[in-house]
Hints:
There is one protein chain. Helix content is about 75%, strand content about 0%. With about 60 residues, it is mainly alpha-helical. The chain has one domain. The longest helix is centred in the last third of the chain and has 25 residues, at about 35-60. The N and C termini lie far apart (about 45 Å). About 0% of the residues are buried. The mean pLDDT is about 80.
Amino acid sequence: MSQHAATDPRAEAFLRLLTIMDELRPNEPWDEQTMETLRPLTIERPTSWAMQFYATMCRR
């Protein structure tokens, strides 16, 4: 790794993300996910985020 990458906060954050993913992967049943099990999350999460974003923007 270059010295620039070691001091770039974005690179450090990305490396932290990779470390977290490496730690989670063996402990979670990611491979057991199906379209049916993921569908509620793909609807619930963005909807929740959009509602929070809208509420924040309305307060301004």
